[in-house]
Fold:
Amino acid sequence: MSKKTATGKVFDFGVLWKVFKGIGPYKNTFILTGIIILSLAFLSVVRPFLIKNGLNNAFENNDASILIPYFLGMLGVLMIETVLQYYQTYLSNLVAQSVTLDLREKLYRKVLKFRLKFFDKTPVGSFVTRLISDIDGIAQIFSNGILTILGDIVKLIVVISAMMFISVELTLVVLIPIPVLLIGTRIFQKAIKKAFTEVRNQANKINVFTQEHITGMSIIQLFNREKREYEKFKLINKEHQNAHIRSVWAYAVFFPFVELLSATSMALLLWYGAGEVLSEHLTIPALIAMILFINMLYRPIRMLADRFNVLQMGIVNAERVFTMFERDELLDDTGTIDRKLEGNISFDKVSFAYVEDNYVLKEIDLEVKSGETVAFVGATGAGKSSIVNILSRFYEFQKGTISLDDQDIRNYTLDTVRSQISVVLQEVFLFSDSIYNNITLSNKDISREQVIEASKIVGAHDFIMALPGGYDYNVKERGVMLSSGQRQLIAFIRAYVANPSVLILDEATSSVDTESEELIQSAIEKLTKGRTSIIIAHRLSTIQQADKIVVLEKGRIIEHGSHKELLSHDGQYKKLFELQFQESP
Structure:
């Protein structure tokens, strides 16, 4: 978004065009809605003419009964207008909701393919605002924006033409305040665009703050931060209120301004029109019709300003949404190989950095044969979890080559890599759903029988059946109804039923108690049997049986070998082992 667009440009037609590209499947409905709106614009002048002609005939014939057909005609027009207004409202909102439905699905589908780096630097609340509030705002472009603006403009032209048909001179007198109104409307548009942009920015801030602090509520309470965080919230909330007040202030000035000019036009009409009537240049019924047209003239002008504001707000929202669409955050998925992996992995001078040139992995060279269990150990920040991130293609490495079965990992489709490399993370994420759905992730190819069998193998069946509802038990948000050890076992079952060629365990026992660790260690032995396994370990007791142990320090491999081989050398592994297993005096 350009600075000019963000701070004062009334319309960005480029953004508007992008929004209208989404109409495609609903083009016929959109066109029909436009025809209905234009029909209503032309019908709006029928009633004043019926009144004018009916009164003229009644006065000329001195017979009030002549008004009955005109009354019935007005009633018929009103009924037609009512039906058309119903379909206008229904169809315009149908198009609006259909377009936003597609837009929201398209955005969510794209974000699902984003690199994890995007989520590292984008607050969750900010993305939720884009996906929900901003896209809802785009709906207003269709339901209360562009078509209704077009209808109001046509109505203005029709009304002014009808007024001129009655009296050109009187119409020109009545239109004297209009240039002033146009200037005021232009100023109002610019002011409200700036105010609306600020409203959306403040709404985003309050969403981000609320989401972050609700998620971290335990930390806030643990460190007695309630009062300070409350004061921060009050400040953000006050800024949000002030932004809304500034937008309301613009309305508070503009609408009375419009009413003042409307009253001025009415006064000019009565002054000049009365003279025309007295000089017999204008009939009383014609004057009455002109009075009705005055009200019809200023109402669309007042509504036009409001409609423009709705359109501007929709464009502000659309700018923010399309910024997400235009972000180049997609992983490279140009690979074409889709086959079952044997599990051979090769790292050839691989270097990786989360931030440019700040490498956390440096020239990693390593061979992992199919069926081997390889463990990575090292101090915090040595680069162990980064191995997981690049092997799973959560992040792209900058230098070197990672090969799977002698093929560059990038030559495989992402689906192949992700479906055949299962990862059990240290912090298990469970959705607010049943245990069964958290294990299968709604994959219909995995049966309940497979889940139960896997649970028995892993050793989790008994605790699951002890829960109310068993496998249908809802674990709530993030699995808060389960202990950390139970969540970890659910993650093991999830990995087991996926039947991966490569299994990665990222410090899976680092945050559980001794009893749970024993159960999890037993599950690990069953999970790793017969498949390539990479274990990121903090507790060295869990990886002594590994075929190969790799010691990382500051992003480099400083030694590797079996447990016995490494203990025979006076290296870093031996120091780590002795540090963990030294007996208390």
User: Anything to note?
Assistant: Residues 3-325 form a domain with the ABC transporter transmembrane region fold fold (CATH 1.20.1560.10). The chain has two domains: 3-325, 345-581. The chain has a mean pLDDT of 84. Strands lie at 345-355, 358-368, 373-377, 399-404, 407-408, 421-424, 502-506, 532-536, 548-553, 556-561.
